[in-house]
Write a structure and sequence with these properties.
globular; 237 residues; 9 helices
């Protein structure tokens, strides 16, 4: 006995066969939600290719951020950290050549990783630092060794370059997760000094503490609700 598909059955079968594949929430994200880094970098007009720019960044790191070979730094160079800076080239080179961090931490591992060129700013290289080491030598020739180990939190760092390949700006010490490590959430040298028991005597070199203004802001209905009231006219009434 032969079974023939009815028109309704045939239509349903054809619809199933031609149905569009399901779109994932990621693919359905609005334009600009995610960037196509490769596509953007391929359209870059900056004359130095990403791989070469990353190599220049690594050379600056090996040369003590360029201080051991100042011609790697542009005359317009500036150093910018969360608290310190901007410092001009001569100020930066003098400051960083005044002490050797490897004397204070002979086993220091800077653990630089995740080097990438910014697809929106193709003259900038971003990288992450997560240094660990033990303080078995004097710091800057004045602070005795403590034998304490430093475990720094991950920190976002970057170098910008001009078309000739010289570094025009260095940023360091921007902590990505203050809960990690033992530096009190501090980055760069401030974090190292805090971890070995020599914190500098001003608030910017101390672990973050809640201000009385912020504590007051958090009372009542909570911080998120207060923020909503600040930015929503309908909730202010």
């Amino acid at each position: 006995m032969l079974l023939r598909a009815t028109p309704s059955t045939a239509t349903a079968t054809a619809a199933t066969a031609t149905a569009a594949p399901a779109v994932s929430p990621v693919d359905a994200a609005p334009e600009g939600f995610f960037l196509d880094e490769k596509s953007l970098l391929s359209k870059s007009t900056f004359p130095i290719a990403p791989e070469e720019l990353i190599a220049k960044c690594k050379l600056c790191l090996v040369k003590n951020f360029g201080c051991a070979q100042p011609d790697l730094l542009a005359d317009s160079f500036q150093f910018v950290a969360p608290v310190v800076g901007p410092l001009k080239k001569n100020q930066f080179v003098e400051a960083f050549n005044s002490f050797d961090i490897m004397i204070a931490f002979p086993d220091m591992k800077f653990q630089y990783h995740d080097f990438r060129v910014d697809c929106l700013e193709p003259s900038r290289v971003w990288y992450t630092a997560r240094a660990v080491g033990t303080n078995t030598g004097s710091f800057a020739g004045t602070l005795p060794a403590t034998g304490k180990r430093v475990e720094s939190p991950p920190q976002a760092c970057s170098m910008c370059f001009d078309a000739s390949g010289r570094c025009t700006q260095l940023t360091v010490g921007y902590v990505m997760d203050k809960q990690l490590g033992n530096t009190g959430g501090l980055g760069a040298v401030f974090g190292l000094l805090y971890a070995i028991g020599y914190p500098l005597p001003f608030p910017e070199a101390q672990p973050w503490q809640k201000s009385w203004q912020y504590a007051a802001f958090q009372t009542g209905s909570g911080a998120l609700q207060n923020l909503a009231k600040m930015f929503s006219p309908s909730l202010r009434q």
